[in-house]
Structures are given as C-alpha cells and as structure tokens.
Design a protein that fits this description.
Helices cover 41% and strands 16% of the residues. It contains eleven helices and ten strands. The strands form two sheets. An eight-stranded parallel sheet has the order 3-4-5-6-7-8-9-10. The protein has a two-stranded antiparallel ribbon with strand order 1-2. The longest helix has 15 residues, at 93-107.
Length: 275
Amino acid sequence: MVIYKELNNTGEKIPALGLGTWGIGGFETPDYSRDEEMVELLRKAIEMGYTHIDTAEYYGGGHTEELVGRAIKSFNRKDLFIVSKVWPTHLRRDDLLRSLENTLKRLDTDYVDLYLIHWPNPEVPLEETLSAMAEGVRQGMIRYIGVSNFDRKLLEEAINKSSEPIVCDQVKYNVEDRDPEQNGLLEFCQKNNITLVAYSPLRRTLLSERVKKTLENIAVKHNATVYQIMLAWLLSKPNVVAIPKAGRIEHLRENLDSTKIKLTEEELRLLDSLG
C-alpha cells in the first residue's frame, strides 16, 4: 500500500514512504563490490512501490547516484520521483551548476524531481546558492528545490530569499530524535504547508529501553515490528514523509507494510509523549 502526500503546495503527490540510499554503493567513498546486487535491490524496491528515491552526490562519492541511474533505466522516468542533494562545498553558483550536471550524468537522466542543499554553508551567501538552483529550474534540470538540515530560522531565510518555492526541509526525525518538534521546525512546516522529510526515521540500534518498551507494547497489538510502529507514527503526522534506508528485500517489505497500520489516538498520544 502506497500513501501519497502533497509536496508543499505544488499539487504533486509523492509517496510518503520513500527510499533512502546512504550506504548503497559506499559511504564516503565508492564501494563497487556489490553493484549488481544493489541495482537489483533498487529495481525490486521500485517494483514494490518505492518510486520516491532519495540520494546525494556525496553518497558513495557519487557512485550511489550511478547505481540509482542504472536501476531506474527499466522504468518510465515520469513514474519516479528522484531526489538528490548538493554538498556544502559546492554551493557557489558555478560549483552548484557543475554538481547538478554531474549528478544528472551519473543518474543518466535529464532532470531531478527535487534538488536539495544537503547542509548549510555560512561561508556562501544563501542568495547565490538559491539563485543557482533557480537557474537549474529554469533550464529544466530541476523540477522543485528544497533544503536539508536547515533549522527554522534558516528555513525562513531561505524561503524569503528564494525566487522558487522551497518545498521541503529534510532533517533527522524519529520517535527518539525530536529536534524538529522542540525547535519549532515541525510546527512551522505544518503551518506553512512545507513538507518535512524525515531521514534516519528508524534509529535501528540506538533506541533507549523506555522507548523500546513502549514501541514493543504497541507493536504486539498490531502484530507489527517496532520499526513499523516508528514509521506509522511519523506517517500519521501532517506534512511529514519518511525515507528509511533498506539494504535487504525483507526490510523493504517490512517498511512498506507500515503504511497499513492505523495507530489509535491513544497510541499516538503515548508515542508523542516520549519526546
């Protein structure tokens, strides 16, 4: 089951459960050892309904984008929503446009659906970066632009300085990492209809005992795993989408099945109170 949510005010509906690709094809540097396996995994993911795929030029030193590019070749490009991100050392105008062109080459596509500033860089004027991204939109290389790891104040600044709408902010958010709630970012995004994209939504090995116990109790009632409950909780929130990474078919299925879970008001309140 695929849940769709509108991206900002664009009228574009995107899968609320996307696929993160950090570690596929390497972390900071390329890893070519499992290329065929990873391309096949990505293809299977798309067939299962993961048509919203998140990557970045930094991932695997660019190799992750190459693997995504190989995987998407078998599908109609218009059916996919591909996101990539530009690294903070490439935020000057010429650097950004060069990065964008290289990303498109590696993905072997004419455009990205969404292009994000991966991390802010205070040494580069935000206007210059946003102006270069707007140029990418005008040239047809980018459909929508957004940011990642921006706090509320910086997001507001980006919105005010950008000639193109800032449609999303991608930040770390899960049942234990509650910064977007505590610093007012989530509330701001919801009030202004900006999509908040939650990365690291599962925090797979780092759950505290208190949180784990609560999740386990709720999971039993739904015949689900704690990770499915974590995703169901995030997806229940207005304007929030999640991009868990999955390196195995069973994890892809498990994550996708979280979209079938309907948490009760009481369960949602209990999970909210853990923050």
